[in-house]
Amino acid sequence: MNGPKDSEPAFSVLDYVTITRDAKTQLVVAIGGDERAEGILQTTGGFASAPGPRGPYQYQPPTMPVEQQRHGATAAAHALLLAGFSVHLDPTLNILATADDDRQATHRYLTQLAERAQSAADDQEVAKVLTEIAAPHEGLLPRLVQTLISTWAPWSERLQNAGHESEPAQRLMTTTGRLSDPCPADRADP
User: Side by side, which strands form the sheet with 86-89?
Assistant: First the structure.
């Protein structure tokens, strides 16, 4: 039987690539690999090379939209894996990840919408964000209203059947009504 030294895996730093978002700069960076990995990152992920204090690294341009960064990082990670590299892809960049639950993905999406709205260079970019929020059938707001209605109705009924005060459910209904009002400015508040 082989000893522990013979059964340990051999790691090569050059064969390992980490793709993550730098907490300080918010740049999507890739560290590790060799020239072949560099080419894959640039070709499939939109990365560019830069000299670093501990050697060269790859980064995606900061002007690249967040969703495009995620798509590029995921594509690059898969291409690197196919080429035989070991890869760590930050789960927040992996468009195929579901391990962190849909709730976290929703939070990331809302954060991205806020970032897009804040960095909008013109009214067209703002309009795109507002369309994603308020589009009649596909927008976030109509879906939120539908979810609130689906929550309010059975909750109100359970409260009444149990003999409890239904005032919290009524407040939720009022809030939902205000969100679904197409023209709140025309509404006369008491």
Answer: 48-50, 57-59, 28-32, 16-21, 86-89
Show the CA angle centred on residue 53, arms to residues 50 and 57, nearest 5°: 35
C-alpha distance from residue 72 to each of 65, 75, 113, 132, 144 (Å): 10, 5, 19, 22, 30
Q: Which residues have C-beta within 8 Å of that of residue 84, sequence separation ≥ 6?
A: 15
Q: Which residues pair with 87 in a beta bridge?
A: 17
d(CA 110, CA 64) in angstroms, rounded, equals 18
Instruction: Choose from 28-32, 115-119, 127-131, 180-184 the range with maximum mean pLDDT.
Output: 28-32
- What are 41-92's pLDDT values in tens digits? 999 999 999 998 888 899 999 999 988 999 999 999 999 988 888 999 998 8
Integer-rounded Cα Rg, in Å, for the chain is: 24
pTM above 0.70, yes or no: no
| CA dist 178 → 6, 77, 91, 151, 184 (Å) | 69, 45, 37, 16, 7
CB atoms within 10 A of CB 145: 18
Q: Residue 141: what residue type?
A: L
CB 14 within 8 A of CB 85: no
Neighbours of 130 (CB within 10 A): 16
